[in-house]
Amino acid sequence: MATNVYLYGDESACKSVLYPIFTGEEDYKIVGACSRETDVLRSVSGAGADVLVVYVDGSDAVLRGVQQVYALRPGIIIVGIVAQSALQDVRTLSAGIQYAYDERLSKKQILEQLHVVLTVERSRMEALSGAMVVADTKYISFASAKDGVGKTTALVNMAVALAKCNKKVVVVDCDMLYGDLGCYFGIDAGNHDIGELLQEVGEPTIDDIRQHLVIHESGVNVLCGPRGPEIAEKISPAQVSRVLMALRGYYDYVLVDTGTAIDDTFIAISEAVGEILVCVRPDIAVLKHTKTLLSLMHSLGMASKINLIISFASPDTRIASNDVVRVLKTNLAFEIPYDWVGCCSANNNGVPIALSAPKNPVSRAVVDHAVRMTGSAAASYGPRHKKSKNGFGNPAAPPITDGSNQQEKGKRRGFFGLKKGI
To answer: Is residue 146 a contact partner of residue 258, using CB atoms and an 8 Å limit?
Structure first.
């Protein structure tokens, strides 16, 4: 659904500066424009605007008009495109312009910033309303028998894909020992993680949890894992269950990342969720341990919840996807195509591949599954290429491509790019 944008400011500036920003953009719809202080409040309300974009040139009349909208229409997000001559004007903030950007920025840069603004502001307004608007929250956990099979990669990109389908998504890192969700999203949670939350509040409410969530630019809410393994032993399975249940009614999807240890926390999470996606790579050792994991989960009465994700399925491997399903005797949810280089590059940069390379086969596979799950079309966000903000970014990482040549590389070099026989 397109965001309704109303333009306000000097008439010539609206035509030359503001209109070109949104022209040809499917995600935004210009619903009106005006230049008169006396008309802006009535016009912006009647047009059903979500965002008021203002050209700020230092005019007193423009700022007075903005003040009226800010005071009387608090649900409208106000963004300023600031002329170079007005960059130092301190009245911009006091007038109610919450976000201001230099007019010399490119169209792409402004739209990227605006997307982040919309994500943050909509989440803030939902939190302020306190309304339980989701009738049926779906809980999905991601599990694997071994590390390094693409479990967290699948979760992160599934979360982004569901957000593209206009779903409210929160991800919870319950790998208490070595959770990496923050790295994969390119965020630094600081002290805002599940460990700090449960040390501060034994039985957290949704308001307590939201104080520890980090909002990713895709719209996904992230509750990161504890900062160190020493905190894990202080967190009980009952506390984890209470956190998950407190999210019910506030999100469409709650995605939970788990560790490889089959402990009481893993069992509590598995009992709380409606679906368990077990990630498996077509590799003999991985299949052996996954079969053991599935056998244990079946003995705990969880067989009906389990579906498979086959990750990094390469045409070069001697184990076909059909063989994996037959051996494990479990339904297949979807496959993640082979693109080891692309996925590693995206993870190291802290930008999910579903954002950085939306046409990549990995992105398409995950988004297609999200569309099947939700029945909703996915919006386009990308592509985005940026260095991670959390200190884990790798500026020298290879570029993320559309993956068209990755399978050919797999054919020539073998699985993981190693020469056969080595």
So the answer is: no
For residue 289, the surrounding DSSP H or E stretch is helix 284-299
Tell which phi-psi region holds residue 329, choosing left (phi > 0), alpha (psi between -120 and 50) or beta.
left
At residue 233, what is the residue type? E
Alpha helices in 15-150, H assignment, sequence order: 19-22, 40-46, 60-72, 91-94, 107-129
Q: Is the pLDDT of residue 141 over 70?
A: yes
Give CA 351 to chain center in angstroms.
Answer: 10
CA distance 15 to 10: 9
**Separation CA 232–CA 363 (nearest Å):** 32
Q: Which amino acid is at 78?
A: I
What sign for the dihedral angle of Cα 71, 73, 75, 76?
Answer: negative
Q: In 3D, which of 390, 283, 290, 395 has the Cα closest to residue 340?
A: 283
* CB of 284 closer than 8 Å to CB of 146: no
Rounded Cα–Cα distance for residues 401 and 278 (Å): 27
Cβ(164)–Cβ(216) under 8 Å? no
Q: Which helix (H) or strand (E) holds 5?
A: strand 3-8
Using one digit for the tens of pLDDT, what is the confidence trace for 86-119? 877 777 777 888 888 999 999 999 998 888 888 8
Global pTM value: 0.69
**Residues 291-304: pLDDT tens digits?**
999 999 999 889 99
The 8-class DSSP code of residue 416 comes to G
* Gap between the Cα atoms of 292 and 110, Å rounded: 51
Q: What SS3 string covers 299-319?
A: HCCCHHHEEEEEEEECCCCCC
**What domains, with CATH codes, occur in the chain?**
3-129 (3.40.50.2300), 138-416 (3.40.50.300)
**Lookup: tokens for 219:** 């719209």
